[in-house]
Amino acid sequence: MKLDALITPSEFAALSGRDLSRTACVVFDVLRATSTFVTALHHGAEAVIPVCDIAEALTLRQQRPEVLLGGERHGVRISAGGVEFDLGNSPREYSGVRGRTIVSTTTNGTRALRACAAAPTVLAASFLNLTATAEFLLQNDSENILLVCAGTGENAALEDVLGAGALCDLLAGASRAQDRVEPRSFHALSDAAQIAWRIYRESKADLPGAMSSSENARRLLAIPGLRDDVAFCLQQDLYPLVATMDKGGVIRTV
Question: For the whole model, what pTM was predicted?
């Protein structure tokens, strides 16, 4: 297996010219899109449909009045075109979605997922379903694994790099007894994957402290109604599920 990573959203455009036919893409938007999608599925949502812009979400609502609209701009719930979205992008809002399909648009996470659409396997990952995602990838023995960090705007997001690094730690393994990195399952780790892995290993003793210094975390922590999302999204393996996006762009549990 080969393990690679995209650290910044500016790299998304290059995916259209990359051969992804033997690649499993794993998208991290820890604060908060992929954490929210995984939470919605855990609470029984039928599916999540990520779309890139508000207009596309509103069009889907016109075509399918039964769907719930979710998402954010600048961190807060969307109100556009005379329509108040049903849900924002806080995973703590998604406990009452059993049996519902959610159309969601966020600043970066949905864009990252759609950029990976050419890959045969696209997973939505977070700390909340980290081990289940790692086990799925190892069982399916993908030739290439690409970890995609959704980022913030066109910049890297520390929390996404930490999530990607944590998955590297599970996939490639580390000799903790000797406290040195010893890749076991992969014959090639890209420099970007190694960067994510090393940042995680340097930060894992105090992930809350590392996360709280990120741009997205600082923004959420400054909003009283959203500050608890930061700690929520750091919970590891809260949900033993795998979230996969099909060729139609719909995310469901495996």
Answer: 0.93
